[in-house]
Amino acid sequence: MIIVGGGPAGIFAALELARYRGLRVLLLEKGADISERRCPARVTGECLHCSPCDITTGWGGAGAFSDGKLTLSPEVGGWLSEYADGAATRALIADVDRIYRDFGAPDRLYGDDAEKLDRWSDLAARQGLRLIHSPVRHLGTERAAGVLAAMRAELEDKVDIVTGTTVTRILTAADGRVSGVTTAGGDVYDSAVVIVAPGREGSAWLAEEAQRLGIPLVANAVDIGIRVEVPAVVTDPITDELYEPKLLYTSRHFEDQVRTFCMNPHGVVCTESWGDAVTVNGHSYADAERKTANTNFALLVSTRFTEPFKQPLEYGKSIARLANMLGRDILVQRLGDLRSGHRTTPERLRRSVVEPTLRAATPGDLAFALPYRHLRDLIDMLDALDALLPGVGGRDTLLYGAEVKFYSSRPALDHDLQTPVPGLYAIGDGAGVTRGLVQASASGLVAARAVVDAGRTQAAELEPGDRDLA
Ligand SMILES: Cc1cc2nc3c(=O)[nH]c(=O)nc-3n(C[C@H](O)[C@H](O)[C@H](O)COP(=O)(O)OP(=O)(O)OC[C@H]3O[C@@H](n4cnc5c(N)ncnc54)[C@H](O)[C@@H]3O)c2cc1C
After folding, report:
1. Tens of pLDDT along 65-95?
2. Interval between CA 84 and ligand 1 midpoint (Å)
3. Ranges of each domain in the chain
């Protein structure tokens, strides 16, 4: 069996398959191994456009240097509940959570205190905001890499792991079944089962392959917005109790869906590279010494384009590239300057009480990069948030842009996440079915379990050793 991609989705598929004897599993990953992954921007703050990018590729995928917030709700981080009923999705999430804890995730859970949740839900509702119930387990950036390294060690002698190898083509046999893959180096690997888990970074490649193989694709939403940075004291009242509040808002002017995403108390703002576009992101360290005086979070406007437009990914990238063109990759602007209609200059930024944690960002004017609709939606939400958490709407609140979440086009998939090409499964963020660590990991379990089940039903055809599938 071949797994393409060593992110959480691919790793969890491998962990599940590794539980069975008699299966030969090969995992191909285009980036570096976990111990070799080094991003210069984590030291300098400036993206050097490495190819492949060490933040988004390599063992652990986009999750390796992520903040490692395990959000344990079917409503957050993906759309797996569209493929299984609510109870099955919750059971999968519980399995994923247990596995992360087996490999070193902490026991502490945030946001599961019903009394606090109810109180914050009531306060949010008064400002037109909806709080989603989503308990969070926080790994922290340094521990996330440790957990992924422990998974790597567990698989060492059970799965063949080849890093630095890009899969370029998915092969099919004359009967239409999947038959293997070829790599950029020209190697051909045969297999009756291929699980593709290429992440957002590899989603364009997967879409091209799906088109070539005649697999129908559905365009997904694109989320466009900014990263907000405020003094941590502004958000401490809610983050101390819930860690990561997921708040939804329907904007006043356009009635668009706006949401908070990836809140990092006492964290840092960072960049990520998506080929020719650099976007902003954030994370926080579990280690007390590396905590900052600021909290950052994303505000995202979700748009699902209708006919005839089918390139949400390209649209999102174009907006990111506009911001890149105006600054050195990422623009930063004080909210007060945006409201007054002028750019933030280095002098104005120096006067800000909020010290930017992404020092490489260029002081500028986001109004030149973001469409009016998005900007209006974001300001509406900042106003609502300011009423809930006074200070969020302050003059010195920093806005970084652009933050774009590309949700890959979704190939047609059945409830096992199998494509119409028998034996070919597509999982994780790259298949557009997830957008977070937990659901991406869960999708790996779904595909691997389906593969094992399919093997069981054909047990008579398997070699004697393979019949022991426990
Ligand atoms: C900075 C940052 C912070 C984040 N923080 C959080 C968080 O706190 N909580 C959360 O839930 N989510 C977070 N996320 C999102 C989370 O990391 C992703 O949802 C998750 O990693 C998706 O898993 P995946 O396995 O589907 O894809 P990925 O993790 O993207 O892994 C895909 C892998 O496939 C490889 N690949 C791609 N194409 C090919 C190919 N053709 N051949 C071989 N290999 C290929 C890539 O190199 C990559 O390693 C964060 C993401 C980033 C970038």
Report:
1. 777 889 999 988 999 999 988 899 999 999 9
2. 22
3. 2-110+137-218+410-468, 222-406
Peptide bond into 293 cis (omega under 30): no
Give distance in angstroms: CA of 202 to centre of ligand 1.
9
Cβ distance 223 to 449 under 8 Å?
A: no
Pocket test for ligand 1, best of 171, 212, 262 (most atoms within 8 A of CB): 262
Q: How confident is the model at residue 464 (pLDDT cuts 50, 70, 90)?
A: very low
Question: Which of 433, 407, 139, 161 is CA-nearest to residue 264?
Answer: 139
Residues constituting the chain:
470
Does the CB atom of residue 380 touch ligand 1 within 6 A?
no
Q: Report how far apart, in Å, the C-alpha atoms of 70 and of each of 8, 172, 384 are.
A: 12, 36, 26
pTM of the model: 0.81
DSSP state of 92: H
Mutate to test the pocket of ligand 1, among 12, 16, 30 (most ligand atoms within 8 A of CB): 30
**Nearest ligand 1 atom to alpha carbon 67:** 8
Alpha carbon separation from 192 to 82, 197, 461 (Å, rounded) = 27, 16, 14
Percent of the chain as helix, strand, coil, to the nearest 5: 35, 25, 40
| CB-CB neighbours of 383 under 10 Å | 15
DSSP class of residue 425? E
Report the atom number in ligand 1 closest to the C-alpha of 69: 8
pLDDT in tens, 393-408: 999 999 999 999 877 7
**Is the N-terminal amide bond of 371 cis, ω within 30° of 0?**
no
* CATH superfamily of the domain spanning 2-110+137-218+410-468: FAD/NAD(P)-binding domain (3.50.50.60)
Our answer on whether the CB atom of 8 is closer than 6 Å to any ligand 1 atom is yes
